[in-house]
Amino acid sequence: MGEVDPAFIQDPEHRPNISIIQADGIPVIDLSPLTNHTVSDPSALQGLVKEIGSACKEWGFFQVTNHGVPLTLRQRIMEASRMFFAQSLEEKRKVRRDEKSPNGYYDTEHTKNVRDWKEVFDFQAKDPTLIPVSFDENDDRVTQWINQSPQYPPNFRAIIEEYVEEMEKLSYKLMELIALSLGLHPKRFEEFFKKEETSFIRFNHYPPCPYPHLTLGVGRHKDAGALTILAQDEVGGLEVKRKADQEWVRVEPTPDAYIINVGDIIQVWSNDAYESVEHRAMVNSEKERFSIPFFFFPTHYTQVKPLEELVNERNPSRYRPYNWGKFLVRRKGSNFKKQNVENIQIYHFKIA
Ligand SMILES: O=C(O)CCC(=O)C(=O)O
Ligand SMILES: [Fe+2]
């Protein structure tokens, strides 16, 4: 093995610590009260809502069990992902993304301008997805992002579509619980997503890496959307920055659980009551690893700002409104290739 390409090397202060701390305490929340009661009967859900609220406040991350997503579907999609990535680079590049059409395969993603040790396949939940042409505030034109259909495995697209439907169902349930935990109407968030959400699903493949002390599968970052629902395989590697002491702690794989995290949009909607937490993925020198995050994103025309019910004179709004579609377009462009400027972040909209 030759020298590592410098594009992959993390600055010394961001390199992974090989002697990891086990995450004690990422809450595991049993969602079975949801299947036994409907959210229209909030009293039956009080305990659950409280657990969700504390997890969002104290960790920004939690795992859910009894979530209703069939295990067989999860196994099928994991297997399909393995089959897709096992193909030659030439085959995968037939469904490659480019700057204009950001869905499909690529292996050159950068997080904070350092290259990630991974390859990826992205697929929009809605096909087509409506999105602004550019991040220029004065440009009102809207375009469509469409999906690419890999030829192999043959039923990949159908499995993805079935799985995305389950991810959407779970996202809506979680948003209802989060709304209740903030004292809001359970359907408060629905209008931001219905029909024209910009959500997407990502297939991550982290090949074995001979330099696990220098590189990361995904560098430290916060998720920009509302919620992320992550399936990770049994290898493990996800690390979360624990709010209590700012230490990196590992989230151990749990076979049938999903890992949920609050994204930047919930941080803004809740006016910082719930914070989006930094996380990253380690690579492994021996084993390859697969993960599948679903990013629940609102409609492109959503103006993201703290909810009126959650601000008052004593707790004034901490953010200026921003347009989600413009934010997303700008973000996608900068993840695609190394740039010399910092990525757009929600703190750019923070009211000092
Ligand atoms: O693979 C993982 O465990 C995390 C991936 C992630 O954080 C992301 O894709 O945003
Ligand atoms: Fe992430």
UniProtKB/TrEMBL annotation:
Domain Fe2OG dioxygenase: 197-298
One Gene Ontology term of the molecular function aspect: oxidoreductase activity
Keyword terms, alphabetized: Iron, Metal-binding, Oxidoreductase
Xref: InterPro entries: DIOX_N, IPNS-like_FE2OG_OXY, IPNS-like_sf, Iron_ascorbate_oxido_reductase, Oxoglu/Fe-dep_dioxygenase_dom
Family: Belongs to the iron/ascorbate-dependent oxidoreductase family.
Name by which UniProt lists this protein: Fe2OG dioxygenase domain-containing protein
